[in-house]
Write a structure and sequence with these properties.
- The chain has about 300 residues and is an alpha/beta fold.
- It has one domain: 3-Layer(aba) Sandwich (Rossmann fold).
- It contains eleven helices and eight strands.
- The chain has a six-stranded mixed beta sheet. The protein has a two-stranded antiparallel sheet with strand order 3-4.
- A hairpin with an 8-residue loop joins β3 and β4.
């Protein structure tokens, strides 16, 4: 069964039961989440199912609140890390849509080009929807218990080895902020994960995407700003500690090479050796998040 067939079958089953599906898509910056969402929308439309798409970025706080929340971060960014969003801005309309008889769904929207590239909220979207696909780099990530996080911070050979004090302090802050996203994650009934073969790849992908936008006249971030945004995601929630635990629970995982080609896909439970945490049959197929900071 393909990813598209799996999700279509799930949504059809939910609709037959009088329910509306909410699918989560987790993947790093530049992994092709937007393209996958468009393809799924077209596939669903051909099957007569109206699939709405939203991003966790649509729930960013208004500019002034976001600046206060992001003050003092070691990357100098005004968005991206946990705490820069208002998860309830998405959770509340999703709950209302699921409980209503009519299929109209209203969702917040965010425009990254406003406020000189700092971004701000814009006109909300509203329309009929039979199912919702919610995407973002931190979809489904849960906070680590404080004792486990403290253990990771103290491990000289772990994924946080070599981190600066400011990065360690920020990680603890992000871990605490992540708890507020739980009620939104609880609304997801399927999770799809895009996993790169190497965690140096998201930086390359994001720079390639910006170059394409620049050729079309739509880019607005310089290389230093791009690097800061990529680091803000990879170091605010290190993939080894926060994304990897999602894999065995995912309905579907796609392993991507440097050109975003799918080199393996299937249910998280059937992931290849070394990809799922705790699987000692094979070597680790992803670089540690500490190495991605130097990419």
């Amino acid at each position: 069964m393909s990813l598209e067939a799996l999700l279509l079958a799930h949504c059809r089953g939910q609709l037959a039961a009088g329910q509306r599906a909410v699918i989560g898509l987790n993947g790093p910056v530049g992994a092709g989440k937007t393209s996958l969402c468009r393809g799924l929308q077209q596939r669903f439309a051909a099957a007569g199912i109206r699939l709405a798409v939203a991003s966790i970025d649509d729930a960013y706080l208004p500019l002034a609140e976001r600046q206060r929340a992001m003050a003092g971060n070691p990357f100098g960014v005004g968005r991206v890390p946990p705490g820069s969003h208002d998860p309830e801005a998405l959770a509340a309309p999703i709950r209302a849509w699921r409980a209503a008889a009519e299929a109209t769904l209203s969702l917040p929207r965010f425009d990254k080009t406003l406020q000189g590239g700092q971004g701000d909220r814009t006109t909300p979207w509203s329309g009929p929807a039979d199912a919702l696909l919610l995407e973002g780099w931190l979809l489904g990530c849960r906070p680590l218990p404080p004792p486990l996080l403290a253990q990771q911070l103290q491990d000289p050979g772990g994924p946080l080895a070599g981190w600066r004090p400011a990065q360690r302090a920020w990680l603890q802050r992000c871990n605490g902020a992540l708890g507020a996203y739980g009620p939104l994650w609880d609304l997801l009934d399927q999770l799809v994960v895009l996993w790169p073969q190497d965690w140096l790849l998201p930086r390359r992908w994001r720079f390639q995407a910006e170059a394409r936008q620049r050729r079309r006249g739509g880019a607005w971030l310089n290389p230093a700003q791009l690097q800061a945004l990529v680091e803000a995601s990879l170091l605010s929630l290190p993939p080894e500690l926060y994304q990897r635990p999602l894999l065995p629970r995912a309905a579907w995982v796609r392993l991507l090479d440097g050109r975003r080609r799918v080199v393996w896909e299937g249910s998280g439970a059937a992931a290849p050796p070394g990809l799922v945490p705790g699987d000692e049959r094979g070597g680790d197929q992803a670089s540690s998040p500490s190495s991605s900071a130097t990419g």
